[in-house]
């Protein structure tokens, strides 16, 4: 569980222990906290992303930043991020309002069975009404990035409705959800109640399809829902259902471990190679996969060492030659 500062309980405990015992080894920290060494290392990585620990010459390889300095800096960053997020939300609301206003004029541009929803409340009311009427099949892809708390709670309410109705539900979510115990537990409960969940390293769109008759594509700003397109056009809903079927074949069941694939690469390694081949930067790839920039750079170092590459271009060429990625992945 994360605190308001964004530090989960394990990372917080690791940080406090390191401040108390700055020279402790990972094994000592694990023993003190009664956690595994892997768990402690995961906590250290999260602390590093928050700049609460930095590489050092101590036994653990990390040095804790003074709490007053580190926490004050983190709070400042969060305040700046919140200010940027508010500006993004306001900008998106204005844009959605403008689009809705233009659509509301009707005339030749209006499309039957297509409507635009403004605001998170309107979006979730519409999706909830679809869930209340869904009888045969509920398909979900996304969100394409980890949603905010409001969206998470709304999704939980939808799960309850579908379980109560006994509606068959399938969902494709980001692979990064495996790193979130709370979200993973919720998805596994859904599977125990008859649902099915699979994961992919990144997703092309956030969409919900009800009985292949209704589709909703939420519009987000940051991690918040600000509007949506709701469509009841048969050709469009069938296209979304077809896209879901293709993604479902590629996706990995939540209950299965992440396997090695072509060239003995993990799905995550294969996917980041594909994104690089398509021209995405490390930062863009991290956003698409909903992982930290540090994770992407660690993958880069790992893959460069494995293939013996001297440059990103050479890495792509070697991965292509070894079958790690295919030519069509570069399109």
Automatic annotation (TrEMBL):
**PROSITE patterns, alphabetically?**
HTH_LUXR_2
A biological process from GO? regulation of DNA-templated transcription
Signal peptide positions are none
The UniProt entry, under Pfam families, shows: GerE (PF00196)
Q: Name one GO molecular function term.
A: DNA binding
InterPro entries linked: Sig_transdc_resp-reg_C-effctor, TrmB-like, Tscrpt_reg_LuxR_C, WH-like_DNA-bd_sf
SUPFAM superfamilies reported in the protein's UniProt record: C-terminal effector domain of the bipartite response regulators
Q: Which CDD domains match?
A: LuxR_C_like (cd06170)
HTH luxR-type domain mapped to chain residues: 258-323
* Protein name (Swiss-Prot/TrEMBL): Regulatory protein, luxR family
- What organism does this protein naturally occur in? Streptomyces atratus
